[in-house]
Specification:
Belongs to the short-chain dehydrogenases/reductases (SDR) family. Keywords: Oxidoreductase. InterPro entries: NAD(P)-bd_dom_sf, Sc_DH/Rdtase_CS, SDR_fam. The protein is an alpha/beta fold and 247 residues long. The protein has a single domain, classed as Rossmann fold, CATH 3.40.50. Helix content is 41%, strand content 14%. The protein is built from 7 helices and 7 strands, in the order βαβαβαβαβαβααβ. Strands 3-2-1-4-5-6-7 form a 7-stranded parallel sheet, sandwiched between helices. The chain starts with a strand and ends in an 8-residue tail after the last strand. The model has no long low-confidence stretch (mean pLDDT 92).
Amino acid sequence: MGKIALITGASRSNDMGSAICRRLASQGIDIYFTYWNAEEEWPDKFKKEILEFGVRCDGLYIDLSDRNAAFTILDSISNTLGFPTILVNNAAHSTSDGYVNLDAKTIDDHYVVNMRSTFLLCVEFARRFEKSQQQSGRIINLTSGQDISSMPGELAYAATKGAITAFTKSLSIELAPLGITVNAVNPGPTDSTWMTDEIREVLAPKFSMGRIGLPEDAARLIGFLASDDAEWITGQVIHSEGGFFRS
């Protein structure tokens, strides 16, 4: 049986999650994606696109703020495609705040998706992996470079995504004996669903490589980390930013 990957947050054609799905499918990996706030026809259309790679594909509509989301997702994928050996925690919640506007609800809304759902998916994946007798597994979390730069005006997002870095490094030590690598990828500012022309104009000169990052750039790195060639890489946060500078 081939590899199976679980990717969260694939809800639109040009988002990071969808690019990751395409990349892994191109490597012959079966795809199971979660989505939220997608257009009505999107899931079926995307499934058909992924099936054209010659792999199996299924998806699940789910709100990751549900405290039982991790268990629901892993039960569902196991019942449809089989147990995954690759987990990519891509989904995220993000709204602007700043110290004037930050309140309990804003913090909680970020926490339940960016931290709780990510952490619970990681550990439940590992628990089930251990029982599955699989030999090699991959966990890849998405962060946003909070360990190398500040994000004023996005305090809740920066704090909750920054926690993923610490979690990734600590979890990697626990799971290494099981054959599971745990890494994080910071894709830098990426031209996906959130970027406007105004933002592009400001950011473009800051990329040393001469262009703004695309979802496919991070997807290629994630494809490598999911491969057998990356079996010796764990506990790392890899910054894939095309020479982006923050001055």
